[in-house]
Amino acid sequence: MTGSSRSSVAPAPWPPGADHLPDVLLTVGADGTITWANRAVEGVLGHRVEDLLGVDAMSLVHPDDVGGATDGLHNVVEHPGRLAPSEYRVRHADGSWLDMEVNAGVDASVEPPQVVIVARDISHRQALDAVLASLAAGARLETTLTRLAHAMDRQLWEIDVVIAFDGDDGERCAVGVDLPPALSGVVDPVDGASPWLEAERLGEVVVDDDLARCGAQLRALAAERGYTSCAVTPVADFGGRRPACMIIWSRDARLLSVAYRWSVQSPSELAELALERRHHLVSLERAASHDALTGLPNRTVFFSALDLGTGATKGPRALLYLDLDSFKAVNDTHGHVLGDRFLALLADRLRTHLRPGDLVARIGGDEFAVLCPSADAADAITIAERLLTAVGGPIEIDGLRLHPGLSIGIAIDRTGACAPDAVLEAADLALYDAKRQGKGRWVLSEAGSTPPG
Question: Domains in the chain, please, with CATH?
Answer without folding.
Answer: 16-121 (3.30.450.20), 124-286 (3.30.450.40), 299-446 (3.30.70.270)
